[in-house]
Design goal:
The protein is α+β, with helices and mostly antiparallel strands and 178 residues long. It is 40% helix and 15% strand. It has three domains: 49 residues, no CATH class; 38 residues, no CATH class; 64 residues, no CATH class. A hairpin with a 2-residue loop joins strand 6 and strand 7. The longest helix is centred in the middle third of the chain and has 15 residues.
Length: 178
């Protein structure tokens, strides 16, 4: 931990900092943060409700020292075992769950990958007017290459040449709404 910083929550279910209609949780380590500096990320009201519901039904195990029921050591995305909490789920295990759920929701969702959620989020944010710095912050990217790659089709459609051409085809010289 850096000097002068308060300890961060750990990405476990008891850690979110609730705020009115939203929350914040710390992602302790990720592909974009292999050193484990941690990143505080925003949670929607829906995510907070889902997390609260999970906390109600999540199993508890006897604490190894006190014997009291606890969820200590349980990850939000963790394997559950009869004898106690398992390790956190691997990226491949999380991907399999998401693919299974996506396929259940839309049998035509072929080609879904582990990056599909990040790609879709980057595209949605760009479509909503978020700039590259905002995309980088939201996706926790250290460089602009990946968000730029993920949004290149949308940027092409919104590019200067496309806007000018559409404007001329309409016969006006005003701004293109895209």
């Amino acid at each position: 931990m850096r000097p002068g910083r308060a300890p961060r929550p750990t990405g476990r279910p008891d850690d979110p900092e609730a705020r009115p209609g939203e929350g914040i949780i710390c992602i302790r380590r990720s592909k974009t943060d292999p050193e484990g500096e941690g990143a505080e990320v925003w949670l929607s009201a829906e995510a907070m409700v889902a997390l609260a519901a999970w906390r109600v039904v999540a199993p508890r195990w006897p604490d190894s020292v006190t014997g009291a029921p606890t969820r200590e050591g349980v990850f939000v995305f963790g394997h559950l075992r009869r004898g106690g909490p398992g390790e956190r789920m691997s990226p491949a295990a999380v991907r399999r769950v998401v693919v299974r759920r996506t396929g259940a929701a839309d049998p035509l969702a072929v080609g879904f990958s582990g990056h599909s959620l990040r790609v879709g989020a980057a595209q949605d944010l760009l479509a909503a007017g978020v700039d590259l710095a905002g995309l980088m912050q939201a996706g926790r990217w250290a460089s602009p290459q990946m968000p730029a790659r993920y949004t290149e089709r949308l940027r092409a459609v919104r590019g200067a040449v496309a806007r000018i051409r559409r404007s001329r085809q309409r016969g006006d010289h005003g701004q293109d709404p895209l």
